[in-house]
Amino acid sequence: MVRVLAVFAHKLNRILPRFVSKRLRNSKRLFSWYAALIQKNRHFIDPNYVVPFEIPKWGYFPSSEDYNKNIVKQNQIIRLASEYIAIKQGFVVVILMPTFDFVSLQKTLSSLKLQAHFIDRLLVVTEEIELCKTWLAKDSCGFAIELVGAKSNRLTFKFDFPSFVCFSGEVLHEKAFSYLSHFSPTLKNLTYCDTDVLLQDIRQLPHFYPDWNPDYQLSANYIRTGVIVPQGVTIMLEELSKDTVSTWLKNLYLSDSEIKVDHIPLVLIHRPISLLRTLNEGCNTATLFNPSRYPRVSLIVPTYNGLQVLKTCIESILEKTTYQKYEIIIVNNNSDDEATLSYLETIKQHENIDVLEYPKPFNYSAINNFAVRHAKGEIIGLVNNDIEVITPEWLEYMVTHVQRPDIGCVGAKLLYPNDLVQHAGVVMGYGGGAGHAHKFFPREHPGYLARAVCTQNFSAVTAACLLVKKSDYEAVNGLNEVDLTVAFNDVDFCLRVLELGRRNLLCAEAELYHHESITRGHEDTPEKAERFTNEVNYLKTKWSDFISHDPAYNPNLTLRYENFSIKLDE
């Protein structure tokens, strides 16, 4: 039903007058009805809120049925690996106990007893050593237990065995250490696993994390528990609290940006609801990196006619942008509308604006490469002519990040005119190629694990609004103007920048409207359809590794829809 409706809506959009289809797209009531129908058919927007009684209108938890199917698949993977254990590795388990609670500790110990033969010893870090000693004396666990005081400001550990750090009250998967033993001989980096939530002892609300994502960690503390530390590596913890693990990882990254962290996309630890805090608290990393200088930014805006959208774009930049050191390079690609030409003739008199002529067939990649050669800025900004500024400080936020030596491309959060998300990062593999994360979510919606509102790393971001160092742009020879003249050139560009050793980043604080593809039109001719197919095939061939596994995503999540729902039979 949904697929039929989607096809009908797509065809209807082609035949209706543009002003009518635009009004329909911007109708919140119509979109609400459509979204409700989509949700009813399982293609729901899935924010995975932490507190079950705060379910918003625009999403709800994945159904128990869906997650139970996923649990069966995960257990098969864990069981198969557990059957082929090379070494029964002895783990040191470090239980952090910020609040002394016999009941919660008992739950953790009970899950450890089931796999005691994999545990060398247990360390319990607590402020109540005497109480804990008295209680533990009555219980036999099958492994040695040491109590460590948490009164000091720093806690430092270094073991001859791999160690597993968790919190009191958390329950480990019954085959967690059996599975980890299978990999322990090759365990060389810090490693973390996925988690879920125990509600009345029932596994729910899976937290399917991306691979190591430093800026997401800085924004949202997404790794909070379940960290496996290789033998010989020093664990240096600050004063004991619920944020002990996330603070340690933050400090470790900030002191050593070359830190290597691996990820196991399996749920090996189950967290009680009492230990959780919403991930979208304080999702703002821009303040961590105050710019020491303000380089010139060259904003490149290709255009073909489209006077009204171009005028809105340029005026919104000039009137709303608080960052002062920028130039705008408008590239006129065969405009023949007299009003547009008159506007271009007038606007180029502005001291910060230059107009270049590109009298060749439309080739988005070639147009931008041409303009970059004329750019005076240290930073290149690729900006569509249908962009409209919302956040006055958008350039401050984005320049702050793009200056960092470890960051390559920086993209903004883009919204449709009706305040629904158009772009909040690019995920490889959507539809077999690439797509936009959290598309059609409401502007203020946190998204899955707050990933719609937090600054974080993605494999790619859209060039509708993208900043990159000019030196990086030139290092990868710009956009591919031979194979990707219109579509996916930004994705290909971002992935080539990754190969320089950079990380790409979504700057969620920078919000702009995107009146998507208004002037370019649709893929509605045989020639355009063929070109688009060729570009998709190029992407699939060139970047098959990223499409099969996007490190900024999770293999347990769907590639059929852009809503972070659980992958079923795909």
Outline the secondary-structure elements.
Blueprint: H1 2-15, H2 18-25, H3 28-40, H4 64-82, E1 91-97, H5 102-113, E2 119-126, H6 129-136, E3 144-149, E4 155-157, E5 163-167, E6 171-172, H7 176-183, E7 190-199, E8 202-207, H8 214-220, E9 227-229, E10 235-237, H9 244-255, E11 261-272, E12 297-303, H10 307-320, E13 326-332, H11 338-347, E14 353-357, H12 364-372, E15 379-383, E16 387-389, H13 394-402, E17 407-415, E18 421-423, E19 426-428, E20 434-436, E21 456-457, E22 465-469, H14 470-475, H15 489-498, E23 503-514, H16 526-542, H17 544-548
Parallel strand pairs: 1-2, 1-5, 2-3, 7-11, 12-13, 12-15, 13-14, 17-23
Antiparallel strand pairs: 4-10, 5-9, 6-11, 7-8, 7-9, 15-22, 16-23, 17-18, 17-22, 19-20, 21-23
Helix pairs in contact: 4-7
Folded structure, characterized:
This is Glycosyltransferase. Its EC number is 2.4.-.-. The chain is an alpha/beta fold and 570 residues long. It folds into three domains: 2-41, no CATH class; 64-275, Spore Coat Polysaccharide Biosynthesis Protein SpsA, Chain A; 286-297 and 320-328 and 377-548, Spore Coat Polysaccharide Biosynthesis Protein SpsA, Chain A (Alpha-Beta Complex), CATH 3.90.550.60. 32% of the residues lie in helices and 23% in strands. It is built from 17 helices and 23 strands. The strands form four sheets. Strands 12, 13, 14, 15, 16, 17, 18, 21, 22 and 23 form a ten-stranded mixed beta sheet that branches. A hairpin with a 5-residue loop joins strand 17 and strand 18 (421-423). It is elongated and about 90 Å long.
